[in-house]
Amino acid sequence: MNKPIALATNNKGKLAEYRAILAPMGFVIFSPADLNIESEPDETGANYRENSYIKAKALAAKVNMPVIADDSGLEVMALDGFPGLHSSRFASECGTYPKAYEELNRRLGDNPNRDARFVCCICYLETPESKPLYFEGICPGKLLKQAHGSNGFGFDPIFHSSEIDKDLGVAEEDEKNKISHRGKAIKKLEIYLAIQ
Ligand code: IMP
């Protein structure tokens, strides 16, 4: 089985993780760039679900295959969940990820509560008119004081996973995928797709 799915992202890190998990299940993942399509709608939703739907809907209107979109973020508990929904924008505003790590630690100061989590919401649209289906996952952990390693992408080097007791910047791809917010959400999507 070679079932095509379009993934509404231009984020290479996300794309690699979807491919790693879904390719062995017989899914072929196409990014907008693979399809020579531009799809960058404004993410104006009030939460991850709304943003994932905005992204899925925009791409579904341009392709002839089922679509998935992923909206995700890092939430630092002592900062009331910041940067959360705006993680990508926050990193851009800081200029680089290392500067964003520093800025998070500056905002946290001496606060002993370093609890953080990654959150992922996948929206699946079989066709542009289909009812959107949502699959979610959470990855609990702690914000590190210093970045460690360079594996993964985005905020991975500043994140310690409680579930594998390992810094994600030094975790292998398959280790991260087993416990990550995205890995968990994809697992749920995979179960749904398997029974269709
Ligand atoms: P989105 O494209 O609006 O969903 O942005 C998600 C942002 O959250 C990414 O650009 C990263 O900054 C951050 N993020 C989401 N998932 C991960 C992850 O698995 N590792 C590291 N950072 C992540």
Order of helices and strands: EHEHEEHHEEEEHH
Number of domains: 1
Reading off the top of the CATH hierarchy, the class is best stated as Alpha Beta
- Main sheet properties: 8 strands, mixed
Second rung of CATH, namely the architecture:
Alpha-Beta Complex
**Total number of helices:** 6
In this entry the ligands are:
inosinic acid
Q: What's the alpha carbon Rg, rounded to whole Å?
A: 17 Å
SS class: alpha+beta
Percent helix: 25-40%
Number of strands: 8
Query: What coarse outline follows from CA principal-axis ratios?
Result: globular
CATH topology: Maf protein
Overall average residue pLDDT: 96
Question: What this model shows, in words?
Answer:
With 196 residues, this protein is α+β, with helices and mostly antiparallel strands. It contains six helices and eight strands; from the N terminus they run βαβαββααββββαα. The protein has a single domain (3-194), classed as Maf protein. Helices cover 33% and strands 24% of the residues. Helix 1 (12-22) packs across helix 6. The protein is globular and about 50 Å long. The protein binds inosinic acid.
